[in-house]
Amino acid sequence: MAENETLTFHFDVDGNDFTSAGEASVKVKKLMRQLGFSPELTRRVSIAMYEGEINMVIHANGGTADVFVEEDCLRVVLSDEGPGIADVETAMQEGYSTAPDNIRALGFGAGMGLPNMKNYSDEMSIDSVVGKGTTIVLKFKVS
Amino acid sequence: MISVNDLAERLALKSHNLDDGEREVTGGYAGDLLSWVMGRAVSGDAWVTIMSNINVIAVAQLTDVACVILAEGVEPGEDLIAAAEMRGVNLFSSPEPTFALCGRIHGMISPHADGEAANEAAEAYTEAD
Ligand SMILES: Nc1ncnc2c1ncn2[C@@H]1O[C@H](COP(=O)(O)OP(=O)(O)O)[C@@H](O)[C@H]1O
Ligand SMILES: [Mg+2]
Question: Would the CB of A15 count as within 6 Å of ligand 1?
Answer without folding.
Answer: no
